[in-house]
Amino acid sequence: MSDMLKSYRFREERESDWRKLDLILTRAENSGVKALSDEDMMTLPHLYRQAVSSLSVARSISLDQNVITYLEGLCTRAYFYVYGARTSLGERMAQFIRADWPEAVRGAVLSTILAALFLFGGAALAFFLCLQDMDWYWTIHGHSFGEIRTPDATVEQLRSTIYTEPGEIGQDRLTAFAGFLFNNNAQIALFAFALGFAFGIPTAWLLVWNGIILGSMYAVFWDKGLGYEFTGWLLIHGVTELFAIVLAGAGGFVVGGAVAFPGRMSRLTSARQSGQKAATIAMGCVIMLIIAAILESFGRQLINSDTIRYAIAGTTLVFWLLYFYLPRQRPGT
Amino acid sequence: MTAQAATPVKQMEIEAARRRRARMAEAQRLNKMTRELVTPEGAKLHLKLATAAERAGAFAMDVAIQWAIVIGTLLGLSYGAASMGIQNVNIAFAFWLVFYFFIRNFYYIFFEIGRKAATPGKRALGLRVASRDGGRLTANAVLARNFTREIEVGLPIQFLLMGGDQLGAWMAVFGLLWSGVFLFFPVFNKDKLRVGDLIAGTWVIKAPKVKLMGDIAQVTVTAPRTNMFAFTPEQADAYGIHELHVLEDVLRQSTGDIKQQVAERIRTKIGWVAQPGETDIAFLEAYYAALRRRLEQRMLMGDRKADKFDVRR
């Protein structure tokens, strides 16, 4: 028919291909790449290009609103699918452990040192203050009744919190406590990262405050001559946990630094580039804190020898340092 | 006398002009929420950004789902607690705490890393997360945009729950104001970015699934062509693209009552006398086809008649 609408004929000729693309996309979105046959995979790029060119043509010759919005939606979906990542979750995790995480940590050495200075500086400050005058402990912690690890406790009481007597019950309660601590620490780690956006200042405060709590606790044990034993008790999981908190703070500083001092880049680009790296570090912190919680709930209660505790602490430290900082070839290069 | 007679007509004209301005302003507003993405093939895609209200709605839905999961598992745990020993309850509770942490922080990440790049709440409202530079959405970006939720939502809530003595209350007010900056960030920038979006280099766009419906002009093509609806060029020139689209909407999704009214208005406007046996729908479809044919012809010549007020030749 000669006087048929041009846009109608245009649509008639291509509609089946659009619908085919729609079907393939729907299937891929709902059940993944595996649901696509080889034939589908072969035709997908072709159908995509055709749909994109249909959209361009439709915009200039058709006034059918529905067709244009449909094509717009179809092309957007197809674009994100064709140019999107189709790696599985497992592959992404492997890539994270193998390359992304250590690389991000390696790239933030200065921030890591800065974060460590804040945390341990706070700890040292509180430690020496408390050694001089134990009243500082109460200023920092306030009075709480349940707590036995206070300056008023006897050496024996303090010692009993460090070692688990064989056959002692309460193991389950300690496991629950480890769960609670993980929840708490991981939330603080993510918080330290997120607060970095406010130029890193709240992150610094969070690190110093955590350091102060640690340092004052340390002073209590040191004062009673239990420094060596307490260090073993603390470091068996503390190496991993403190390292994680330092790294989370470093992540915060990376973002804060990028927002405050974007250098040659625009503030937005700078925030984006460093934000993704810092988030990788923060994700790694969560993993480290899970490991720390496992060490805490099992290792600490089952192992009562100081030597073995120190050995485990040393091993974890060496492991993390090698894992993060050992130079290695980038996979795929 | 003549001035008095002209007044209602004049008023109608003023009213029409006012509506047209409002329509233009609306189009401009929508335009502001549209971003162009040029694909490697050189085609332009128009991405529509999600509004702050839509995002808040999606978030509310997701929070409701999270709470349902958290409370549901806790209830299940406490029902099961009776049959467990006290020792097992403690361990189960420890695991639940860890589970709670993951629901709180990884719910969004889990769904946004997935194929649809959207949480159930976003999916329900037809939204998805996309990379601002048009590239692929990386896992790192998803992590970055979600780890900041703590300061955007968690921080204001913490300050809200804070209180105590007078100094504490003032601190809380100050903190609330400060953290409110993060919470209301998306309202105050043109791309509707959250702090997380800013850091991750992402934004949230509308990606609703549109159904391809039948072409209305098909009726006039397939049905044997009668001379029943032969519009003159002047009649087909009475309206512009805007009216064509309104007519399309009317034909696709309105009641018979409205269709009848619209048909009456068009008949009056173009001076069409209804013929015996002519139904409103048949008339509207035929006029739609004629109008579209005329407007598409003009468009091919590079002449887009925006609406009925657009009278340039």
Task: Give an account of the 3D structure.
- The complex is a heterodimer of chains A (333) and B (313).
- Chain A is built from 12 helices and no strands.
- Chain A is an all-alpha fold.
- Chain A has 2 domains: 6-86; 90-325, no CATH class.
- The longest helix of chain A has 36 residues, at 267-302.
- The termini of chain A are far apart.
- The mean pLDDT of chain A is 85.
- The mean pLDDT of chain B is 84.
- Chain B is 63% helix and 7% strand.
- Chains A and B meet through helix 1, helix 2, helix 3, helix 4 and helix 8 of A and strand 2, helix 3, helix 5, helix 6 and helix 8 of B.
What's the short story on this structure?
The complex is a heterodimer of chains A (333) and B (313). By secondary structure, chain A is an all-alpha fold. Chain A contains twelve helices and no strands.
Looking at this protein, list some descriptive labels.
heterodimer; A: 333 residues; mainly alpha; 0% strand; B: 313 residues; alpha+beta; four-stranded antiparallel β-sheet; 13 helices; elongated
SSE layout:
The complex is a heterodimer of chains A (333) and B (313).
Chain A: H1 6-31, H2 38-61, H3 65-83, H4 89-106, H5 109-132, H6 135-141, H7 155-162, H8 171-195, H9 201-223, H10 227-260, H11 267-302, H12 306-325
Chain B: H1 2-32, E1 34-38, E2 44-49, H2 52-81, H3 86-113, H4 120-124, E3 127-131, H5 139-147, H6 149-161, H7 166-183, H8 195-200, E4 202-206, H9 218-222, H10 233-236, H11 241-253, H12 256-270, H13 280-300
Antiparallel strand pairs in B: 1-2, 2-4, 3-4
Helix pairs in contact in B: 2-3, 3-5, 6-7, 11-13, 12-13
